[in-house]
Design goal:
The protein is an alpha/beta fold. Helices cover about 55% and strands about 5% of the residues. The protein has helices at about 10-15, 30, 80-85, 90-100, 110-140, 145-150, 155, 165-170, 170-185, 215-245, 250-270, 280-310, 320-345, 360-390, 405-445, 455-470, 475-490, 495, 500-510, 515-540, 545-560, 575-590, 600-610, 615-620, 630-640, 645-655, 725-745; strands at about 15-20, 35-40, 45-50, 65-70, 595-600, 620-625, 660-665, 695. Strands 2-3-4-1-5-6-7-8 form an eight-stranded mixed β-sheet, sandwiched between helices.
Amino acid sequence: MADATPTGPTMSGAIVELRVHGVSGAGADQVLDRPYVHQVAGDRSGGFYRPRPGYPDSTGTDGVTLEAYRWSDLPSGTAVRTLSLVFLLPFMLCNVALWMRPANTASKLGFMALCRVLALTLTMLYVLSIVGVALDLVAWRCMDTPSCLAGRSWLSWLGGRPTGLRLGVLALVPVAAIGLVWWLGARPGHSFDAFRTPSTPTSKHQLSAVGQWDGEPLVGRLRSVHVAAAFATLDGSLLAARVSQHRSWVMVILLAATGAVLLTCLVLLTVVPSIDRTDPAPRVDAFFRGLRTIACGVTVLVIVHVVISPAPWPQDRALPGYGAMVAWLFVSQMMLVTALAALVIWRRGGGQHGAPLRALGAPVFVTIAAGLAVAFSAELVYRVADLLDREGTTADSLETSPPLPYKWAIFGFFMAVVTALLVAALVTRLTRRGRRRAAQAIVAADFPHAPASAADRLRRVERAIARARFTERLEPLSVVYAGLAALGLSTSVLGLLQLMPGELAQRYVGVPESMVNFLIGSGSYAIAAILLGLVVGGLFAYRTAGFRRYVGVLWDLGTFWPRAAHPFAPPCYAERAVPELAKRISYLVEQGHCVLLAGHSHGSVLLAATVLQLPTRITDRVALLTYGSPLGRLYSRLFPAYADEPALREIGERVGWRWINLWRDTDPIGGWIFASHRPGEAETLTGPAAMVDRRLVDPEDVVPAPSDSVPPPILGHWPCESQDEFAESVRELTGRLLPGRQATGEAGRPG
């Protein structure tokens, strides 16, 4: 696409204001606040736009050239893809946890190994849930029960067939499920090489690595490992059922091969550094593909053996060994989460903001991911069991009752959610007075001369500020929920002892068994409601700008980080967006322009990673304007090894401290970077960092302007390009850029 960048010596060509939007998914015309725009670089997924020349008001403040980078289509895509990502949400959360490691973790390799093994258990759990539906409930239980087959022609054709044939045929269902996630994880993305900037980054901070390295080799190796482990999990389920009644040398060979595949997967994820190689390694890649091929071959042999083996099958009510496998997997996840939390607490690092619970994001996110995966898997098995049991109401009939570990999982998940909600309500109640008192002080300082008629409007502003300040309370609440979810996982061990939740509660706690069964049923419906909510959110998040503002923060945060733990997580859009921004900025500077980078919300995170990748000859002619930025409020807490204070200070140093950050007290997401500058608060920060943050009064007033009939709106996290403070910040930063341009840029300016 032809570039319309002006190259003359006029003032409009001297400064280019490059705006990068946040999670709102706004169009280029909205970002530029101009009705007529055209694309000057990029494609439909991610492109650069400018106002069409020849129309009035086609330039920005003081005649600067306006340009917008629109990246909102990179993490979204079609409705089918969005739905697939919704159901793979636990994989995304587990992948994000890998990037939440503390800044000074004693063992980075140990931390990564624990996260990757936990990610592998999620894939195995995914397979076991499909095995539970296809093999345990349908092939083993339903097809052996005439009342279950009655009226179901789609199942009765296998009814009465040999057990091995039923298991072998329906084993194709989990094989197809593995193939589905394999296909989703291997679907082609954007070519990284097309957006790579030729310059070599000089930053020592880890945030500069996001988008700089090609993650596809690592993702391909992880994908091979997970596919191999998935097939080995299916093989283990079939062999566990077979070995309970029949033992032969063929069984020994197949069991040994399955165990060898699983052991190799664990070794590759924990102690072999070759998996992280980014340079071309044909032999290494061939080894990983070979492991995957061997696992597929073993699965074929296992299914064939199950079908043709003449030995009788046991007469157990449930698929032999299946419940124990599920319970041991739950217990293993709980032990891994505990080990990860112990490692982090032992040598946790600090973020920019000191907090007693800092740097615990990794174990919290991993626990939430495991809890969601367990809940979704249990709900799938439970719902299918309830569907097969046409006369029952809670899937507790003898024919199709789900395994005990799933019942304990649903019970534990429901109790964890209910307890967390009660704790959240209690914390909200206990902190409301303090938050309102702080909000009242801010409002009183911002609007000291408000008339009595504005009392209702002042109360609304106070409530908005108080709600925004609740963000700081989410950190301890998430830790509480993670602890409860881990405790719920640990209850699965009771399923190994064949203890029923209702019987145990009635015997030792005095809670009626019927109430516990009611709670299990309620938990199942609660999980179904959560799934339905995720589906609705996935459909509308990238179709409706207003709705996306609420759910897009989590989604864009998750898809910003490369897939380094779970290969079936959503693709990383930063692998294109950050190099593409770096390449565009470098091009503009090399054409003789100075560039003012303006990033809203998550756009400021993209620009932060981009600035750390740019060489000094480029950043000498760059200024940075951020607004509604989560860098200091969220990222420094959640990702202390990547967005800590030294990294943020290096960003300021790279741009010569030509950096202004605008923030509002009513914003629940964005905040200050270095200093709040709230009225009545003494700031101890000195130096150029103390001049970065500028607090915006929100709303601009609490009474209507003389030309209006309603007072100005409360903007919160909305962009501020149309505000006077934004224009003043642009004017100030362009003024700082011009002297450097006159001193160093005249020789390089095209004639």
